[in-house]
Amino acid sequence: MADAPAKQERITDIGPPHYKKFLPPVIKENYGKWLWHDIPRPGVLVHCAESGAKIWTVRAGTARLLSVDTLREYAEIADKYCDGHLRFTSRNNVEFLTSKEENVAPLIEELESKGHPVGGTANSISSIVHTQGWVHCHTSATDASGVVKAVMDEVIDHFRGHKLPNRVRIALACCLNMCGAVHCSDIAILGIHRRPPHVNDENLKNLCEIPTTIASCPTAAIKPVTVDGKPSVEVDEDKCMYCGNCYTTCPAMPISDPLNDGLSIWVGGKVSSARSMPTFSKLAIPFLPNNPPRWPETVEAVVNILETYAKGAKDWERVGEWIERIGWPRFFRETGIEFTKYHIDDFKGSARTLMNSPAFKR
Ligand code: SF4
Ligand code: SF4
Q1: Which atom of ligand 1 is least distant from the CA of 136?
Q2: Using a 6 Å cutoff on CB, does residue 252 contact ligand 2?
Q3: Which of 71-85, 87-101, 333-347 has the lowest mean pLDDT?
């Protein structure tokens, strides 16, 4: 048998190419030797290296689901001003990178003239990170890009400016599997199902493997049953958390329900460990109706929370830090959001997360 080629010589198509292949030359030359950075205007960052070399970053909002035409437009702009260099941030902004200061102003002008708003840095909101929605995913309880477009249209001034007490990260996930960052965002919009999956006994025996379907449920809510002498499954409604995992495994258990699906709003999450620990988002509004094409109830709810935070927070407080300082009762009072029984976690599997003490803390 011929010797296997040395590992480093093997060419594979597994995984993306190494990122260092695509770094702009000025970053390669000064790798690990950057001294300081500044934000000269909303949407623009400048980084300076020990050598004195500088790189300017111009950040623009994207629609996240990008057409080939838009990608070609980005590539042309990057070729014209940035020697072909651009990158995408984890929250769906596009950043154009140039070492030539004289390119910054015309680059901004061209982006704006083509409908790509520049902003999203420092004390602003950046693009809303979101999931697939009705465009692509089978378990979605709401659309993603449609809701995000409607919200962004209302809060665009906070994308273009630095008028907020601190940065505000908004996210949307179209079901609680949350491919978006709803668990760790200042304001999060989460699509929710409110009914367990519907079991289609007739199709199930032909479409699904029963053991795999039972194993797919994270809360052990599915058990095997016999219906009219044929094998099927049954869902324990008290244990079901409406995640839709079983529908991914078994197409005979659809979970979407136009009458009961909707959206919820969560607040106070963050990834950063500056000033306070990273936090998970907490429930603010348990249910809002799915109301396409502009989702007015959801847009109003997000704008209300954002503006109440902007008025009430001290400089540099994130949304969660502001709420913790004023207390949750005052958060509900100031935003006018109703506190309901749904804010109390009574899920059957939640014993470990419940406060096991008679002393309630305000
Ligand atoms: Fe699909 Fe849920 Fe992810 Fe949305 S959040 S893309 S519905 S798995
Ligand atoms: Fe289990 Fe989720 Fe299916 Fe409910 S929706 S039965 S929790 S897998």
Answers
A1: 6
A2: no
A3: 333-347
Q: Give the ligand 2 atom nearest the CA of 239.
A: 7
Nearest Cα residue to atom 2 of ligand 2: 243
What does the alpha-carbon distance between residue 219 and residue 240 come to, in Å, rounded to a whole number?
A: 7
Task: Let me know: does 349 contact 239? Beta carbons within 8 Å.
Answer: yes
Angle at 170 between CA 168 and CA 171, to 5 degrees: 155
Establish how many alpha carbons lie within 13 A of residue 123's alpha carbon, considering only the half-sphere containing its beta carbon: 14
Q: What is the pLDDT of residue 345?
A: 77
Q: Judge if the beta carbon of residue 219 lies within 6 A of ligand 2.
A: yes
Query: Would you put residue 176 in left (φ > 0), alpha (ψ -120 to 50) or beta?
Result: alpha
Using alpha carbons, list the distances in angstroms from residue 293 to 38, 71, 278, 289, 296: 39, 25, 34, 12, 9
Encoding tokens for residue 314? Answer: 């001290």
The pLDDT tens digits for 237-284 are: 999 999 999 999 999 999 999 999 999 999 999 999 999 999 999 999
Ligand with minimal distance to 177 CA: 1
